[in-house]
UniProtKB/TrEMBL annotation:
Lineage, opening ranks: Bacteria, Pseudomonadati, Pseudomonadota, Alphaproteobacteria, Rhodobacterales
Source domain of life: Bacteria
Species this protein is from: Poseidonocella pacifica
Pfam families, A to Z: EAL, GAF, GGDEF
InterPro entries named among the record's database cross-references: Cyclic-di-GMP_PDE-like, EAL_dom, EAL_sf, GAF, GAF-like_dom_sf, GGDEF_dom, Nucleotide_cyclase, Rev_trsase/Diguanyl_cyclase
Residues spanning the membrane: none
Protein name per Swiss-Prot or TrEMBL: Diguanylate cyclase (GGDEF) domain-containing protein
PROSITE patterns: EAL, GGDEF
CDD domains (UniProt xref): EAL, GGDEF
Gene3D superfamilies the UniProt entry points to: 3.30.450.40, 3.30.70.270, EAL domain
GO molecular function: cyclic-guanylate-specific phosphodiesterase activity
Amino acid sequence: MGYPVPLSEYARLKVVERLRVEEAEVDQDIERLVALAAQVAGLPIGLLSIMHADEQQFIVNHGLPELSGTPREHAFCSYPIGEGRTLHVPDAHDDARFAQNPLVVGAPHLRSYVGVPLEVEEGIHAGTLCLLGHEAHDVDTVTLDRIITIGTAITRLLCSQRDRRELDEAHAKLDFERRVVERASRTCGLTGLLNMTAFREEGTNIIDDRQESMQLALVDIDEFRTINERFGAFIGDEFLAALSESIHSLGARNCTAGRVGDDKFALLLRTVDSTAEEIIERLRAKFYESTRPLGLIEMGRLSVGLAGSENGAPSWRTLLSNAEVALHAAKSLGRDRTVRHDEAIDRVYNIKAFQSAFTEAILKGEIVPYFQPIIGLETRRIEGLEVLVRWHQDDGQVRPPAQFYKAFSDRLLAPLLTRRIADAVCDILPEWRRLGLNPGKICLNATAEDVAHPDQLMDIMHELAAAGLSPSDLTIEVTETIVMDDPEGGMRRTLQSLRDKGVRVALDDFGTGFGSLTHLSSWPVDILKIDRQFVRRLPRSEKDRHIVRSLVDLAGRLGLETVAEGIETDWQRDFVTETGCDYGQGFFYSPAVSAEEIKDLLLRERAHGRHTG
């Protein structure tokens, strides 16, 4: 038996699929309206039919309990759906389309019918309000209009039910993604321990709340950089995992642990001196046992700096600073040892000597800018340069930032460092302009001290503008810590004032700190930079792939651009491109290089039309 099929049948079936209405889920108001329609029509049977590809399903059934649906070829409702208009059949025996229908000549012996198509989208009918009787029955025009009105009300309720469900599902999906990213923002994905800023938050709370003896141990893997460079990041990760597993295996009570740097871990112990040292030696023995199978017996030892807080003093900041000094002493004294902070250690290994040497290096011009390209993932072109810093020493050595990281947090050195780098960039830009080179956006890293003193950043913006770089081509990069550690809001006001002048703000290393997602929408930022630790593990970690997708999706929902840091392979590039990430940065394209080398790179790109990555 043939029946009419709408021209838009494929689209109609997609609409039906979206409805996903099961009998148990139908709104009671819809059931009451179906019963009312049958009463208005004077017919004993009222059905709400949803038409699938090969059958119709009765999601509301008044008066026909023996049937839950019929094949589509037997369905009276195929006609109002196929033709897109209400169908009234006073007597099926007199209608050639239905006279031999199995539902007419056999049980349930149907004879009269009214079918109102439900237009859930323009021109798309998902089902019908279906009224039936066992005897011939005519319905006048006024009654038919009332039934059509009821059908329209049912359609609206069905659509409303669908929209509410889809909205609930969207909220649930977004909430799940928020919880995934929130969890990732407080923990290290590789080790499962607290990350640096979360550990600092926990440590501050513990110190403030307790008046008992506390011991802070900073544990550093010796020669970790050499391990990574000589044997690869995979072996480096094995050492990190071994140390985190060793920490977990201690089972030490009253211990809070975190990963607070690339190869640095921290343990806050609520215990006395001797017990803390016993725990550290157990950790050292367990770690060496775990890493022995890697075959690098002479590498990956542990240096530990230990500092105590007796009877509730000193503060968390002082405790952390003392542990840092003790760790520096442990490394300076030959590594593979534990050093406890005391006055003698502090006199020898404090920051004063470093401040003097670094200030001299700035004055001598040894602190120079390096540049790393930021690549448009769709255009494959250099869209900007991140300005980094290197220390060119008299002996020819080039020291990376990891070897003078203290300068970035020093209230005296940090502003001098930023000013020196900005001045150097101002000297370089005119030559690039003379050569017709366009470096795109210039991204400067700002320290907490810089943001706390807005006059310097404003001066730098004006000086760069005088050198040919408009504020709209300047990006200031800050870390999550700078934005979060701002109880009075002064730093945020500084960043917002820069944005008001056209400068863009990037949030660096997003996902590694404790930047709560509940605050992200209010932060004065335009760009999220996804930390390299997530990108590095993409090929072997489904969890990190999910996190990166969620970060990119979240940024897009908030109107922010994204930069994936640490891209080292074409697989990583292709993956982050597929997520919709805007820009990429990493050794796959280029390491950070000198001004002369980046000039050559810009010249080559201009000649070839795109970056080779």
